Amino acid sequence: MEALLNVLVIGSGGREHALAWALAKSARVSKVFVAPGNGGTAAAGGKIENVAIGHSKSDFSALVSFAHTQQVGLVVPGPEQPLVDGITDVFKKAGIPTFGPTSKAAHIEGSKAFSKDFMKKHNIPTAAYGNFTDYKTAREFIEQANFDVVIKASGLAAGKGVLIPKTKSEALKALKSVMVDREFGAAGDEVVIEELLLGQEISILTLSDGYTVTSFPAAQDHKRAYDNDEGPNTGGMGAYAPAPVATPELLKTIHETVLKPSIDGMRRDGFPFVGCLFTGFMLTANGPKVLEYNCRFGDPETEVVLPLLDDSCDLAEVFLAAAEGRLDAVPLRFKNGYAATVVMASEGYPGSYPKGRTITFDKAPANTQVFHAGTKRDGDNVVTSGGRVLTVTGVSDSLQGALDCAYSCVKTVHFDGGFYRSDIGFRAIKYLHEAAERKTGLSYADAGVDIDAGNRLVDLIKPIVKATRRKGTDSDIGGFGGVFDLKATGYQDPVLVSATDGVGTKLKIAHDMKIHDSVGIDLVAMQVNDIIVQAPTRWFAFMDSNQARC
């Protein structure tokens, strides 16, 4: 039996609560320490325990010392700032496996200008853009642009450094607020001005050890504070996964044109990425384009995808395998179903908001989980301490079922002034309804039949069948009829024509529908049609017992 593992999760938000919750499920994990944690991780009990150490750069030495003392065998940093500041480098130097990118690799989020140049170098589809450190040059770019623009502070701005003006005048005003008025401080010393992309957004969380690339189901977030996508932008007011708009064909394209080239490109450029790469996409009329990279798990996307992990999937083993460069040996497996997350926020968010309001919890419904974000313990109570207070997740076989679960759980949580969006998932529900209306029949794929796999099997066994060739027989396969020349085998002149068809699907449908009076005609017609095309002059019929009974 493998030795038990102590894990250190670094951070204090809903993302870190969800990570601690998922890691604690591992049979191999003995303890999950969360530094500094929040009111939810403080009250979790069991394997989860808070540690009163922060995660600023000045705290790194204390975190390493704690990890050594507690014999921590895996470190999982949550927020972007400590990753950009080099926390992984510090733990690696101390000899402790860490699931997270080095400071150099984390630069993919730490500098939006760097990430855009990286995409351009590696032919990764993204919006047209320009990087600027000079205010006058940036103004000229906006004035001459023949497209609507987005203005981004290049550095880390706590998720608030993206401005989407509606007019050229607003764009110039926004640029001044970033570069001259320094609304985002040093993060705005360099700006990225890029073309505004239109379409639906999705987010994909991808795990990598620098070589292997494996992803969670695509999620869709809701950034605006209020229903109908109104109000100011936030860090995210809810999410759901898998996003129905992310079809298997689209995900294959994204993997081949973005995710794998991104991981390969970082390795070839000398900074292999180990950890979770968050990639935001806009699904444009010209295909998926990258909006941004993050060097860590997203929030609230983490709270919606982790509950979809299959019970047989050990997240601690997955993270450790990635940190040790053997991710290909540990599969990432998911349940068949959907998850939906609703964020409960403090009044005033994303502006100023009150703190210290007591939160009460009634019994949560089945298939739900409440993850704490902006909370803390105050004696025996849990109180609000942030803008986004809680993320409430429901899981079900259907998206509507997951949403119903999440909202039923929201109603069991109470604190003064709290608010949430009541329309999480509205795009997906509309998409599913429209897709159902467009659909006029059942395809082979819908019925669970893989035509391509069947064709591949035929190609595989063709040489084997060829090896059975004998005089008078046709050894080619792929059709449903065959020719047997009995004269070539010693008979006098006869040529037999026969046909063989699989009838299982028709019989099953007849059985399920309880309609048997015509299926026999159908089955015989299949045989007759296949024989007719061989132009026989005389007939006799032979049917097996299943056909004869129809």
Provide a concise account of the structure shown.
The protein is α+β, with helices and mostly antiparallel strands and 550 residues long.
Sheet of most strands? 5 strands, antiparallel
For the residues shown, what is the average pLDDT?
Answer: 90
Strand order of the largest sheet: 11-14-17-22-19
| Class inferred from helices and paired strands | alpha+beta
Compute the CA-based radius of gyration.
Answer: 30 Å
Low-confidence stretches: 543-550
The N- to C-terminal Cα distance equals: 58 Å
Outline type: elongated
Characterise this structure.
- The chain is of the alpha+beta class and 550 residues long.
- Helices cover 33% and strands 24% of the residues.
- The strands form 7 sheets. The protein has a 5-stranded antiparallel sheet.
- α6 packs across α7 and α8 packs antiparallel against α9.
- The relative contact order is 0.09.
Task: Supply database-style keywords.
550 residues, alpha+beta, four-stranded parallel β-sheet, 24% strand, disordered C terminus
How are the secondary structure elements laid out?
Elements: E1 5-11, H1 14-23, E2 29-36, H2 39-44, E3 48-50, H3 60-69, E4 72-77, H4 80-84, H5 87-93, H6 103-110, H7 112-121, E5 129-132, H8 135-144, E6 149-153, E7 162-163, H9 168-179, E8 191-195, E9 200-209, E10 213-215, E11 220-221, E12 224-226, E13 230-233, E14 238-241, H10 248-268, E15 274-284, E16 287-294, H11 301-305, H12 315-323, E17 338-345, E18 358-361, E19 368-372, E20 375-378, E21 381-384, E22 388-396, H13 399-410, E23 413-414, H14 426-438, H15 451-466, E24 481-485, E25 495-499, H16 504-513, H17 519-532, H18 545-549
Parallel strand pairs: 1-2, 1-4, 2-3
Antiparallel strand pairs: 5-8, 6-7, 6-8, 9-10, 9-15, 11-14, 12-13, 14-17, 15-16, 17-22, 18-21, 18-23, 19-22, 20-21, 24-25
Helix pairs in contact: 6-7, 8-9
